[in-house]
Design a protein that fits this description.
about 425 residues, alpha/beta, Rossmann fold, 2 domains, five-stranded parallel sheet, about 20% strand
């Protein structure tokens, strides 16, 4: 399946100040498939190296990191004449070889005419711990699970996606289309955006098989903890990982460490949480009590929510039954709307590349998300199902007078006085109207 990241890769290829590219993302979000597709369609030749599958590759980097010398031996190894501009050189799972990662500096400085992309499943973890990484010598790009719009494309709903992308009014959508999109959104809540799960459903439409794939992915992630995380952090990482769905099922979704262990303290789990974030497996949303720009400067580092990388994996971790796909709005309201909030966090992160925050005021009100766009802060209140209550958003509105307070529900598009109601399936269009 063709991914939206493809357009970004095309932009990188043609950029006048192109540098070696580092593509980051969690395991099994489709990085390898996207890069191979890009290499075979946009270049005459592709030289692909996987440092996890072929451990001997690291030996080529033990001596010199001179790009010209490396290109000679890598051409022999791959059987591909690596030429500037016409060949894409891919270093996959490059976190397994620090010197290969370090060689990107020299490709940038001494051989900028060559097109090189490095990718890895735990590259984010590696980069945060590798003090010698040549910052400023590479371009960065992140890849995520399929967004809802990508999901529509994968299911053959390209015309419907194009209709949504070109929709620029606040008039309600035609009701038959709205109802169809709600049904597709319910499917997305269960299937999520992991490429293998989406491809399986697109081919056979069997939700039980989708669930098997999701459980396999969850198990693979836990094996990564044991294999790649610091030994003294493995148990803590696993404990945090297993807590995410439980904490999101609470009315107050702020992450509480004492739920892991009565005497647990935040500082004991800081590194474990950061490891999961660097691995691309969780998204953090920090509390902001004073919504001023930039939001990051006013975030409370000690108060945050944790969302899972993929809403489908959250459902699998929660053992959510496939029956919920056909039971009215049950899928949106289950676990106190945790799937719905996780979906919004995922869309804002993956589709809009936004850091997410939330606002709370002395226990009287809470707005689920704050995001900033072009020096404007947008408050977003998420309501499971067609719930029309907006008390917290109105309190925020009275206090701070935002230009566009947003409510996200399963209701149709609507401009209701000061409030802009967005159907959940249009979250990625928030700043486009």
């Amino acid at each position: 399946m063709k991914r939206d990241v493809y357009k970004l890769l095309e932009g990188w290829k043609g950029a006048p100040r192109r540098k070696p590219l580092v593509l980051n993302g969690a395991r099994q979000v489709g990085k390898t498939h996207a890069l191979k597709h890009f290499g075979t369609t946009e270049y005459e030749k592709m030289a692909y190296l996987n440092f996890e599958k072929d451990e001997k590759l690291a030996q080529y980097f033990e001596g010199t990191l001179d790009p010209k010398e490396l290109l000679k031996v890598l051409s022999i190894h791959t059987g591909v004449d690596i030429e500037p501009g016409t060949t894409l050189l891919i270093f996959d799972e490059v976190q397994e070889c620090s010197r290969a990662l370090g060689s990107l500096k020299y490709f940038c400085e001494e051989a900028p005419e060559y097109h090189v992309i490095a990718a890895g499943s735990l590259l984010g973890v590696k980069l945060t711990r590798d003090k010698g990484f040549p910052v400023g010598k590479v371009n960065f790009l992140s890849m995520y699970p399929l967004t809802f719009f990508e999901f529509l494309s994968a299911l053959g709903q390209e015309k419907l996606r194009l209709f949504l992308e070109e929709y620029k009014t606040y008039e309600p959508l035609p009701n038959p289309l709205h109802e169809k999109l709600i049904q597709l959104l319910k499917l997305y809540f269960f299937i999520g955006g992991m490429p293998e799960a989406v491809a399986e459903y697109a081919k056979n439409e069997k939700l039980p098989v989708v669930r098997e794939i999701q459980l396999e992915i969850l198990n693979a992630y836990e094996r990564d903890f044991a294999k790649h995380a610091p030994p003294n952090e493995v148990m803590k990482i696993t404990a945090v990982w297993k807590q995410v769905h439980r904490q999101l099922a609470k009315e107050n979704k702020k992450f509480i460490f004492s739920a892991i262990r009565k005497s647990a303290r935040g500082r004991e789990y800081e590194e474990a949480i950061q490891w999961l974030a660097d691995a691309g497996l969780i998204y953090k949303s920090h509390l902001v009590e004073t919504p001023k720009l930039p939001l990051s400067a006013y975030a409370d580092n000690n108060a945050f929510k944790i969302f899972l990388v993929d809403v489908g994996l959250l459902g699998a971790q929660s053992n959510l039954a496939a029956q919920t796909v056909i039971d009215g709005d049950l899928l949106f309201t289950e676990f106190k709307g945790s799937l719905t909030e996780n979906y919004v966090a995922q869309e804002l992160t993956c589709a809009k590349n936004k850091a997410v925050y939330y606002w709370a005021s002395e226990g009287t009100a809470e707005v689920d998300f704050l995001v900033e766009e072009e020096q404007v802060i947008y408050p977003i209140e998420v309501k499971a199902g067609a719930n029309q209550k907006k008390k917290s958003l109105l309190i925020y509105n009275e206090k701070y007078s935002p230009s566009k307070p947003i409510r996200a529900t399963t209701m149709n598009l609507k401009h209701d006085g000061a409030i802009y109601n967005y159907p959940l399936y249009l979250i990625s269009r928030l700043f486009c109207s």
